[in-house]
User: Fold these one by one.
Assistant:
Number 1:
Amino acid sequence: MFKKILIANRGEIAVRVIRACHELGITAVGVYSEADRTALHVRLADEAYPIGLSPSSESYLRVDRIIEVAKQSKAEAIHPGYGFLAENPAFARDVVSAGLEFIGPPAEVIRLLGDKMAARRAMKGSGVPIVPGTESSIEDEKQVLDFIGESGLPVLVKAAAGGGGKGMRIVHSADEIASAIKTAASEAKSAFGDGRIYIEKYLPDPRHIEIQILCDAHGNYIYFPERECSIQRRHQKVIEESPSPLVDFRMRKAMGEAAIAAAKASKYVNAGTVEFLVDSKRNFYFLEVNTRLQVEHPVTEMVTGYDLVKEQIRIAAGEELGFGQDDIYARGHSLECRIYAEDAINNFMPSVGKLNVYREPSGPGIRVDSGVYEGFTIPIYYDPLISKLIALGRDRVEAIGRMRRALTEYKIIGVESTIGFHQAVLGEGNFLRGNISTHYIEDRIADLIRDEGLHQEERLAAAVALAVDRMEKDSLSALNNSRSQDRANTWKYSFRLGNI
Amino acid sequence: MKYFVHLDGNEIALDIAKEGNNFMVLSDNRNIPGNIIRSGDGYISTIIGGKQFGFFISDDNNETIIHTGFRMLRAQVLDERDKILLAFAVGSEDKSRLADLRAPMPGLVVRIMVANGQQFKRGDGLIVVQAMKMENELKALHDGVVKEVEVVTGQAIEKNQTLMTFE
């Protein structure tokens, strides 16, 4: 087992990995950019090293700096977290070349599965159902038209090197093709450095259901109960749950076995997630493999009781999985809400600032994975994730009830947050019935961000609180200043008041 | 004490009497008793009719913000004096450079601090008027020169009455 691991990440996932290290008695080495000197993950790390200026490109993406620090600290392995360099095959290779273990799949597997087209070819060859699409990348309109001739409209243009919705365009009619392939290719080129695009059949209203897999270096493959991640905004997951309200025992087994087939086809090792799209007839189609730990891994941990990060570390240390497929089953239901520092009412504009008040909820069935603390100023350089709020209940109804309760207890003041938005989703009829798809948010965004206004009783109480607060502040300043000094501001004050 | 609270698109008029943590508020012609206390972490707990409401209030850049539930609302609390001053400020046409100084409320001239032809700087005290049982020193909003002081000490003045003119 490792004695020391370097975590090449920041924020809540760095905290998560540090916690797993500490539970295994492993020394945790953290790295920080200039903006993150006071970050929570630095406080929790045993050792911490600076790796550069605040922008990610100058710090968390600096392969050279990270490996230099790893050697300097004598770390034996590097955990990449998610995002940043986690799915960068060159990084994985460089880590190994430097004599360290990379806590994740081998570089070649990352490379194969990171190329979405190569991944699809590998899956097709292993009998894993894939979304119908083109075998090779698209050079011109004619190829698209040929495909449409066979599979029909609408179709989706996608980036071969892509993810996160970048380089994607929907084509509803033939005259949209030319501009769609041009803009998708250029977006892909600038986001991933690779402008190759391909076409998939566009499934209307699909559900996004994924399978967590763990594979050790001894030929053992395990799948976990599915996660449903259909509640997305602009292809970013917002609410995830396990198990899926749609999936029954038989479908779970079929999807799980397809995921294992995908893992074997790609010679997968360590933790990964096989993503599927599910159509209205409950047919599932392979979408892609994420060769890293996912943001939403906690919901799987909650319903199965297994610690996925510790398992990642054990696998990388060469251990065999200590359990079999029969040991894995979902008990209860878990939900996760990603709490972002965003103003939902203003098109989810990132809201940066100091967390003047920050109180996490707790109580039965509540887990919070965060990388912040009260008084911390959320940096502008990285994604605005404040925390992941996770709830576990005996069933979906209880999990939702606990999540709603936790959301009301959660106090975040100083930045706008998506707490109110999540509360709106968790009270909405379709969500409660499990009637969801990847278009859920888009279809009802107006209702979800509508501001109801205060109830009369609350408004009166608020007015009283404001008035009393004012009374207290006035008497305090009367004590501090002389009377006339105070009233001298009246002249200027009257103009400030004009801003009502 | 009377307050006018602007909140959530409404103006709420209150008359609050406080004794310790207990209060009686007159609002909308109803007398409502309650209890209010601020905790060490800034949380303000208000109980009215047995119902507990919690708020955090912060002052940021001259703006008061009240946090309730998931919402962050801008609020403004005016006492009676503020309301009068506001009415006066809104009536003023040119906010950048004023030709004269007018009384914001009826009162009494207590002390005149400048003389005809005197130069003054922004922030200098010009005149002290007594109104609503308090002395108010009116300060210059910009640099200028006094043209003519039009009142004398001890004179009773009316709202909007010209106190002095500027060059």
Number 2:
Amino acid sequence: MTTGTGTDQPDTGHGVEHGPGPEQWRGVERALLKVRRVVLLCTLLPLAAGLALLLGLTAGPGWAAFALLPLATAAWGWGALERNWRSWRYAEREDDLLISRGVLWRQLTAVPYGRMQLVEVTSGPLERRYGLARVQLHTAAATTDAEIPGLAPQEAERLRDRLTELGGARSAGL
Amino acid sequence: MPEKAPERGPAEEQEAAPEGASGAAGALGGAEGAENAGASGASGQTEASPLPGRPEGKRLHPVTPWRRAWAPVAGLIAFSMHDFQRTQEWFTQLTTGWLIAAFGVLLPVAAAYGFFSWWFTSYLVTDAELRIRTGLVFRRTAHIRLDRIQAVDVGRPLLARIAGVAKLKLDVVGTEAKDELAFLSERDAVALRAELLARAAGIAPEAAPEAGEAPARELLRVDTRTLVTGLLLMGTGWGAVLAMLVIPGVVFAVSDSFLAGLAALLPALGGVWASTGGRFLKEYDWTVAESPDGLRLDHGLLDREHATVPPGRVQSVKITEPLLWRRRGWLRVDLEIAGAGKDKGGVLIPVATRSAVADVLARVLPGVGLDDAAEVAVAVPRRARWCVPLMWRGYGHGVTDAVFVTRSGLLRRRTTLVPHAKVQSVRFVQGPWQRRMRLADVVVDHGANGWTAARLRDAEEAHALVHAQAERSRTGRREARPDRWMT
């Protein structure tokens, strides 16, 4: 139950203050990182083993070195997933929700509460196994990309209830 | 409403009142305005008597069943074209007996289907909704909330014009296709549109059926000469012509087959037609008029189309200035309306002078001046040339009191305006290379399933912009019109 990166702000200018007071950024559960690493290893390790076996038997042991490619990807992915996990954060401000994510391609989405049409909480089998849920916000624009993965179910429900309540209070039409 | 049974009146009002109230408050369910409650499978009980259970409400014009009559005939013709010899053989084998049998069975079946589908289709206007019931076996009832109607079109295709009928199309948020009533007699269609708009505007229910067509004032009419000149000066038409000449030639030279060249020619011909003749037919006699219930657009040479866009429904406006139009100062304007779909993209003005466009634009987006919007757009920093060489000069962005402005394009200049009140969410997007250059994009999403991006802004500025825009779009709604614009 770690809460991501509460203190070390990235350099994308969160230092620029807007609105009343500093935003309270929250990270996502560390279990999300675990799930993603499990998925990463479960796809790449069998792939590496299968490739090594296939190439070793058909083309010769030298060719089996190509199986290191998926292994290298897995090693890189291990660290990349952590960096990506750290980048996920969200802040409930007075009038809008901010979601920030991405390491190389950074994205910050701001959705005013009044524009939310639907708040969705989903949890797949693997996510449930690790005690995770994701919250997705829908506005009238289908291109709105506002999703927070890797929340504890209680937090997801709290967020859903709060967003619904705020959305109702600040509702606006199209 | 002659067919509206008197006892329905109060019941409807009771049922409709809370919906209308919650519609104004819009409790987290704005898009539900298009709830197409599919009530199906009720056919069993409707077969008790010869013509039972005809739903109440008005019926469509009796010519309707014929609208699909041409389809089997066209299919037959296409088939015989496809395999001419076999068809000839068949025809020699056909005896009069067979023919009579075929007609004796097919005709009544087709006629019965046409009749029943017409019989079971009806529509009814209540205080808050338009209800359309269709379906012979699978019943479908669509309840369309009037205060969520985004636009009403009356279409008159060529054949329908000959028959004196028209179809009514409704744009509603959240539905894929337009709900349409086809066909109504022309008079009924116009009267129904007037009534729908009057009720949607919030005119008292008793007065609505008699309110009639709101008076319209013509703002702009595109004369044929301007339209043709404009089309001739468009790059796309000439590009298509060039492609039509070059591609089949190349294909013929390479494959040495006349048929292959012909096969390549046909799609190219289609492209040429779409960007020249087709556009001419569609945009002929383009008229923009203003009335209390919205903007009226009339156009078309063979197929006349009429669209009404109620006030405050415009999600974004795109102004295009092709290279060859610049000397004449002509502009083209496109609209995006929620429910119409991004691909369809409605044209507001196919071609007009700058002052005429500014005139119309001031009515579409109150408080927006074309020149103000163009001036407010600030160019991007010079270092943006390392991100997007050459094209960076075209990018620009600015904000006025009412709209978010983005500019792009070097040869064909495009300016996009999104009213603050229509912005649904704001995004800050930055790739690795952009971060190195301390640049970022700011994207705003609007309700017509579209977005527009202020590209390559300074990163600091972009961050400030995201927050400021979220604030503006939140407050912008307060000054916006209510859904029922006359209440």
